[in-house]
Amino acid sequence: MSLSESxxxxxxxxxxxxxxxxxxxxxxxxxxxxxxxxxxxxxRWQVFLEAQAVDDRGWSRYFFSKDNAKEEVxxxxxxxxxxxxxxxxxxxxxxxxxCDPCWKMDGTHCTVSLTALTNDAAVGRFVxxxxxxxxSEAEFTVDYHDLFPRFYFSQEIAIGxxxxxxxxxxxxxx
Length: 174
What we know:
Strand content: 25-35%
Low-confidence stretches: 88-93
Largest sheet: 5 strands, antiparallel
Helix content: 25-40%
Shape: globular
Number of strands: 9
Distance between the termini: 56 Å
Mean pLDDT: 78
Strand order of the largest sheet: 1-2-3-4-5
Order of helices and strands: EEEEEHEEEHEH
Structural class: alpha+beta
């Protein structure tokens, strides 16, 4: 069988690749879901977006739950299809935030909050933001990649993921 005759991957479903990652193929490209090493404190799963002619801001994304990762990909795709139809665009990273956070958790060295976005449905409806308490040990233990922002469509998933991140950070700090 020649390369041109090879079967195309199944569309719109998660498939297990031989090397262990999962992929979700769609008409513009694919999402790649990879497990991260157990010591990784940004999340146990990472989703990459490989696509053509797609606004890929906000990717890659980290998750502690594989199911949450898949659900957020499905929400992003549904939203992208809808926005593609109406031609929605919004500049990034100029996020328009609603007034106050809708959820917040204070830790010893940092605060993580979840705020609704007022206009950027292309990346999500909520954004998680970490604020490091100045002069704290977190200035040394929270690295650039932990300073988010992390985008979510589901408030419930966002709170679960941010709570898991904070618990993981507490373990790292001890």
